[in-house]
Amino acid sequence: MTSTKDPSVPHSGRRATVIGFLLVVMAFLFALLMSPHLPHEVPVHWNAANQVNGTMPKPWGVFIQPILMLVVWAILWALPHISPRRFRMEGFRHVYDVLQLVILGFMLVMTVTQLLAAAGLRLPIGMIVTLGIGLLFVVLGNFMGKIRKNFFVGIRTPWTLADDEVWLRTHRFAGWLFVAGGFAFMAEGLLGLSPLWLIVTIALMVILPIVESYRLYVTISRRRKAGN
Question: How many angstroms separate the CA atoms of 113 and 157, rounded?
Fold first, then answer.
């Protein structure tokens, strides 16, 4: 009897997809459980002073986060299947699986936090979100150097996509930067610093790897030309 399983998707990939879907189901079940305890206008956003500054009516206010999780899960499931042949993700599929579960786990925690706070439980929303984002960046940073060249995940600049060595060294640099930025995020959250510091941290984490990829491309290209 012929197997109908897609040979391009490792067993671990299918397992991560199933676990990720279970996380989405958990988010929907928790939202359904909390729905009777939530007001008609459900708080969905808080400012830096932990005050509600955004609401959505039921049922959207209740299920908006689980719906977003479902969309992210579907995108993460689809990317390995639509990746071009020369840029397949099998070479780092175990890393990709960890990353997708970490992202969905983070979204589940944010969903639970938002719904509990919307139900009236006094929670330090800003601190929880900042700590969660910081921890997410620390985890992502630890895996950045293991991501192989592809069109969807990682630091995808013209220079990293053009050269394997530039890709590798840029992602190693970005990995250290993400870890440092993640710890900075957590420190900023614990100290209650101005959101401006968070914006500056994110800006550096976005801009510096792009600049470094260009610098590496120029340096490596010159070295190779000199070696000829």
Answer: 35
Regarding pTM above 0.90, the answer is no
User: 72-87 b/e with 16+ CB inside 10 Å = b?
Assistant: bbeebbebbeebeeee
Residues 6+ apart with CB under 8 A from 2: none
Say how far apart CA 215 and CA 113 lie, in whole Å: 41
Render pLDDT for 141-157 as a digit per residue (tens, 0 to 9).
999 999 988 888 889 99
Q: Which CA distances in Å does 72 have to 65, 67, 79, 97?
A: 11, 9, 11, 13
Q: Is 125 left (phi over 0), alpha (psi -120 to 50) or beta?
A: alpha
Cα torsion 67, 71, 76, 77: sign: positive
Q: Contact, 138 vs 178, CB < 8 A?
A: yes
83 secondary structure, DSSP code: S
The verdict on whether omega for the bond into residue 195 sits within 30 degrees of 0, i.e. cis, is no
